[in-house]
Amino acid sequence: MKKSRSKVFLLWMRYAIFKEILTMENFDQSEEMKRRLLTIREAAKRSRVSRQAIYVAIKQKKLKAKKDAKQWMITMQDLADYHRNKYSRKKSMYNGELIFDKDKGFYSVKEAAEMLDVPVQKIYYAARVGLLRAFRKGAAWVIQLSEIERYRDGYLQQEQNAESATSPCFAEKRAS
Length: 176
Fold this sequence. Notes:
Elements: H1 2-24, H2 31-35, E1 37-38, H3 40-47, H4 51-59, E2 66-67, E3 72-75, H5 76-86, E4 93-94, E5 97-98, E6 106-107, H6 109-116, H7 120-129, E7 135-137, E8 140-144, H8 145-165, H9 168-175
Antiparallel strand pairs: 1-3, 2-3, 4-5, 6-8, 7-8
Helix pairs in contact: 3-4, 6-7
């Protein structure tokens, strides 16, 4: 009985936190709620991350914060903005420019794998052994569209031709 109560309590807490985050993103908030200040500890608790993650976000200028005499303070609005942009890989910046910019022909490994209809690991392997030229911007691998097309037309076509030549159906036709 005790376990089921704790599960219910945990579910209720998750719901409360999720509901609070959703209300932070609501544009009809009162100005007072937007200006409410949070400490690092409170912001970490609301975000369900460590205090160190909050410090890193502040240092990387992903989360706006002001330092009082002794501690950092974060507004609810800034925390909500951070959550909206936190997991957006498409908006990732490096030295002030977009990492994955389709207008310039820069794609992520995942996008390249989807375009070529191959597993992501195959793209990483091809980049590592030199079959596909990719470069790093910060922690992200970036591949140009021309390289994706070259890899598709060159290596993947050869691979498909080799598979069809070694298939049992082709061997039976050749034998007859």
